[in-house]
Amino acid sequence: MAETDQAPPQSDQLAAMNLTDAVEKHAFSDRVLIRSIVGRPDGGAGLSGQKVRAGGWVKTGREQGKGTFAFLELNDGSCPANLQVIVDAGVAVLSKLVATGTCVVVDGILKVPPEGTRQKIELRVEKVVSVGEVDPAKYPIPKTKLTLEFLRDHLHLRSRTNTIAALARIRNALAFATHSFFQEHNFLYVHTPIITTSDCEGAGEMFQVTTLISESEKLEKELIKSPPPSAADIEAARQVVSERGEAVKQLKAAKASKSDITASVAELNKAKENLSKLEERSKLKPGIPKKDGKIDYTQDFFARQAFLTVSGQLQVETYACAVSNVYTFGPTFRAEQSHTSRHLAEFWMVEPEIAFADLQDDMKCAEAYVKYMCNWLLDKCLDDMEFMAKSYDKGCIDRLKMVASTPFVRITYTEAVELLEEAVKGGKKFENEVKWGIDLASEHERFLTEVKFQKPVIVYNYPKGIKAFYMRLNDDMKTVAAMDVLVPKVGELIGGSQREERYDVIRERISEMGLPLEPYEWYLDLRRFGTVKHCGFGLGFERMILFATGIDNIRDVIPFPRYAGRADL
To answer: Domain Aminoacyl-transfer RNA synthetases class-II family profile, which positions (predicted)?
Structure first.
C-alpha cells in the first residue's frame, strides 16, 4: 500500500511522549481521561505522585480489610483498561461506591502499587466529589458475563459493557478513517437525502414516507367531533346567499345610501364565504384520499410518493458529474422482512463516486480504502482489537494484518463460477446451486476467500440480469462492469461498478428492468448533458465492523439496531 494510505504508527506517537509530563485534563471537563493515565507506554507509572481528578463508572467494586477500605475498578469509556481506585472508609461510605454501575468522581494521588500486582498505577482517593448511586437489586447490567442477545433488550445501558464500549470505539475509529482516507485523496463529502423519490436498487423493499395515514386519522377524529354538513345545511346556506343577493339588488335599485349598500354587500360576501366552507367541508371523507381507485399521492406531504433511501448513490452521482470525486456516508434503509444475523432495516453506507474513472480505478480505490481502514485499526485501536481477539475472535488481528499487507486477488465472475464448479466436482457441497447466472451466495464468497485463496478477492464482470440498471453494459452484451470485494468472515464487503454513461443504453436498461422512466429523468439528464465516464462503490459500514472484530451478529455492531419487529428507543 502507498505511504500516503497509512496512518502514523502508534509507537511513534508514544515515543514522542515525555513520560514525566503532568497528565493533562480533558479540554472540556475538570477531570483527567483514564486513557491518558493507563494508556501510556509505562501504564501510568511515570505519573506517580501526581494529584488528579478522575470520573467513571464502577466495573467492579469490593470492600476489603473488614470494611476499612474498598477497591474500585473505574472506567470512563476512553479505553478498555480500568483505573484501580482505593477509597478509605474515612473518606466516604463505601457501600454507596462498590455496586457495579455506580458513577463516581474522585480526587486523589496516583501511586505505584506494591510489586506483584497487575496494575502499574492506582489512585488513592482523598475526596469523593460526587456519586451516582445504583441499587444492585434493580440494575439490569450486573458484573456477571452477559450474552450479546441479552444486552439487545437493554440498549440504553449496554454501552456500559466492555464489549459494546469497545465496539463503539472501533466504529468511531473506522468512521474517522473513512473521512481521513477520502479527504486525503481529494474527495468532497456530500450529504445526500434520507428521503428520496427514486429506488436505487429497483428492489422495491423500501420504507414509505407519508403523512396520509396520520392526516386521515386526524380527519376521522375531527369528523366524529364535528360531523360534515348535511345536504339540507348546504341548501339553507344557498338560500341565505340568494336572499342576501336579492337584498343588495333592491338597495341598488332604490338608490340607497353608499353605506347601506356596502353593509349589505359585506353580508352577501359573508354568506358566500360560509357556503364555500360548507361545500368544502361536505367533500371531506374519512380514509386515505383516492383518485381513480388508487391512493392520491398529490394530497401527500411531498405531493408524490416518497421513501427512505436505500442508497445515496444516484444523488451523489450528480455531484460526481460536476465536482469529480465525491463520497457520501450516512444511514440507509431497507424494509426487508429478514431475521438473519447479517441484516438490519437501518444501516450505514460509505459510497464514493469517481469521475473520469473506470472499473479498474474503482477496484483500485476499494482495495486501498479497505487496507487503509485495517491499518488504521492496527495503529489507533490496537487495545480494543486485542480485547476483541481475547473475547470473541482470536484471529481478528491477524486477519487485519493479512488484508492490510496482501494484494487482493482479481477474478472475473465467470472464473469464480468455474472455480466453484471445480470444487463441487471435487466433492464440496454447497446449499445453493452453482451455475453461471446465479448471484453468488455468502457460502460461495466465503469459500473463495477462506478456502480457495485465503485472502480478499475482487470478483468483476457479473451477468447483467443480477445487477442494477445503472451498471455499464460490457461489449459482450451479457455482463456488466460490476465488481464485489469479498473478504474472509463476511463475504461481500463492497459492491460497486462503472456506471453506464451512455444515454441510449441506460434508458433501455431502465425499461428492461420494468422501472418507470419518469422518476429517473433527472438521472438521465446526467447522460444527456455533458456525460462522463465514472464509477463508484458502496461499503456496508456494519459489515466492515463484523469483518474487523469477528462479532457474529450485525445487531451488536450498531448502537441502536432496527430490524423487523424491533426499533427500541
So the answer is: 326-559
User: Regarding predicted confidence, which is higher, 244 or 483?
Assistant: 483
Cβ neighbours for 483, distance < 8 A, ≥ 6 positions apart? 359, 362, 363, 366, 458, 459, 460, 461, 494, 495, 496, 497, 537
Residues whose CB falls within 8 Å of the CB of residue 473, separated by 6 or more in sequence, listed in order: 464, 480, 481, 500, 505, 509
Q: What is the pLDDT of residues 59-106, one digit of tens each?
A: 999 999 899 999 999 999 999 999 999 999 999 999 999 999 999 999
Burial grade of 178 (CB within 10 A; 0-12, 13-18, 19 or more):
buried
> Cα separation of 175 and 187, whole Å?
15
Name the DSSP letter for residue 200.
Answer: S
Cβ(247)–Cβ(267) below 8 Å = yes
pLDDT at residue 562 tops 50:
yes
d(CA 31, CA 105): 8
Grid cell 478498555 — which residue?
Answer: 80
Portion of the chain with pLDDT greater than 90, in percent: 71
Give the angle 458-462-468 at the CA atoms, nearest 5°: 110
Q: Across 133-193, where does the E strand assignment appear?
A: 188-189
Residue 441's SS3 state is coil
Confidence of residue 199 (pLDDT cuts 50, 70, 90): low
- Contacts for 328 with CB less than 8 Å, ≥ 6 apart: 189, 190, 191, 192, 312, 313, 315, 316, 349, 350, 351
Give dist(CA 352, CA 178) in Å, integer: 10
Q: What would the pLDDT profile of 475-500 be if each residue is shown by its tens digit? A: 999 999 999 999 998 899 999 999 99
According to DSSP, residue 534 is labeled: E
Q: Report d(CA 468, CA 314) in Å as an integer.
A: 12
Residue 447 in contact with residue 181, Cβ under 8 Å? Answer: no
> Among residues 559, 422, 530, 442, which one has the least CA distance to residue 489?
442
Cβ within 8 Å of residue 58, ≥6 positions away: 72, 73, 74, 97, 98, 99, 100, 101, 102, 103, 104
- Report which residue type is found at 257: S
CB 326 within 8 A of CB 499: no
Residue 223 or 270, more confident: 270
Please give the biggest Cα pair distance in the chain: 116
Helix boundaries (H) for 412-533: 413-425, 442-446, 503-512, 521-528
* 515 to 197, 374, 496, 522: CA distances (angstroms): 13, 39, 21, 14
- The C-alpha atoms of residue 388 and residue 557 are separated, in whole angstroms, by 12
Any residues with CB less than 8 A from the CB of 27 and at least 6 apart, and which? Answer: none
What's the rounded mean pLDDT across residues 461-477? 96
Q: Is the dihedral of CA 117, 118, 123, 128 positive or negative?
A: negative
Whole-number percent of the chain with pLDDT over 70: 95
* Cell matching residue 136: 444492585
